[in-house]
Amino acid sequence: MNIKKYICKDAYKLEEGSVLPELEIAYQTFGTLNEKKDNVIWVCHALTANADVFDWWKGLFGENDLFNPEEYFIVCANILGSHYGTTHPLSINPATNEPWYLTFPHFNIRDMVGVQQILADHLEISEISILIGGSLGGQQSMEWAIMEPERIKRLILLATNAVHSPWGIAFNESQRMAIRADQTFYSNTPEGGKNGLKAARSIALLSYRHYETYAISQQEVTQNKTDDFKASSYQNYQGDKLINRFDAYSYWYLTKAMDSHNIFRNREHQENPLTTIKAQTLVVGITTDLLFPPSEQRFLADHIPGAQFLEIKSFYGHDGFLVETEMLTKEIGAFINPQTNDAKVNQYIKLHD
C-alpha cells in the first residue's frame, strides 16, 4: 500500500475534553486533483478497513470501475483510533514514551471527522464533490455533512444511521465482553486480548450477515455430521483473519466510538441536524441488513432535504454494501451522472463478466 503520513504537531482536543498532543494521519490518494479542484471523492471507511479503498471496495473503486483515478481524485484516510497508521492505542504516548493501550482517551465519530477535516485542509481541499461511506463510514460522512454543509456537494450514505441503536450497542458490548474475558487484554502488550478479539469477530459476523447467508454458504453436504461443522470452521477462520491484521485495543475503542454516534447529541436546541445538510444526497439501505435495518436509512432520507432513498436486495446482509458493487455501480452512477451512466454501467459489466 502506498501509505502517506501527515504529522500534525498541534494538540488535538477531543469532544469529551481530553487532548492528544499530536496527530499522525495515514491516508492514500488515487488519481490527480484537477485544476478546478472539483473532482474529489472522499471515502470514510468502516470499522476494521483501512485507507486502501481499492483493496476493500473492489468493483466500485478501481482502474476500470465507477470511481476510477482517471476521472477522480480519490482520498481515503485511516480513521482516528484504527490499527492502520493514524494515531491509535498502540501509538506512542509522548508523555511516557510507551504505547497508550487502555490509557488512550475516548473519542467519538465527531472526533474522527475532525481529524479528516485537518487532513482536507492540509491537502487544500475546500470542496468535496462526493463524500461516501457505509456503516461506521456512513456515520462519519453524515456528521461531516452536518458540520461543514458548504464543503460537501454530494453525499452517499450506505447501511448507516443517525443514532446508533440499542441493538447495535448490544452487539458491540457483547464483543467487548468477549475481549474483557481474555485476561491478556489487561497485559498492555501488542498481542493482548487476541483470543477475545477472535471471539468478538465471530459475534460481529453474525450481525454482518443473515440467516439465509449461512443457510446456503455453510450448508453441510451430508446429513451425518455431529461435529466439525462448516459454520464452526467459518467462524474460527474469520476470527483468525482479523487477529492476524488488527489489535484488540483499537477494536475496543472503535466500537465505543460507534456506540456514541448520535447526531442529536448537544444539539437539542437546534433544528434537526439532518435538515441542515445541503449536499445532494443518496441513502442506500439493504433489505437483509440485521445491524442497520432499512428503517434507519428511510429516517435519514425522510429528513435530509431532497434526499433520494434506495433499498437493494442482497444475500449478504449488512455486508451487501461492500459486495453488491454491480448494483451499486448502476444506482450510484445514475445518481451522480444520469446522462452518461448507461454507457459506464455497460462498460463495467463487460469488464467484470
CATH level 4 superfamily of the largest domain? Alpha/Beta hydrolase fold, catalytic domain
What percent of residues adopt helix (DSSP H or I)?
A: 25-40%
CATH architectural label of the largest domain: 3-Layer(aba) Sandwich
Count of individual helical segments: 12
Query: What would you call the shape?
Result: globular
Number of domains: 2
The pLDDT mean sits at: 95
Main sheet: which strands, in order across? Answer: 1-4-6-5-9-10-11-12
- The total strand number stands at 12
Termini, distance in Å?
Answer: 27 Å
SSE string, helices as H and strands as E: EEEEEHEEEHEHEHHHHHEHEHHH
Domain AB hydrolase-1: 40-324
Subunit structure: Homodimer.
Pathway: Amino-acid biosynthesis; L-methionine biosynthesis via de novo pathway; O-acetyl-L-homoserine from L-homoserine: step 1/1
InterPro entries: AB_hydrolase_1, AB_hydrolase_fold, HAT_MetX-like
Features:
eight-stranded mixed β-sheet, two-stranded antiparallel sheet, 353 residues, alpha/beta, Rossmann fold, Rna Polymerase Sigma Factor, Chain: A
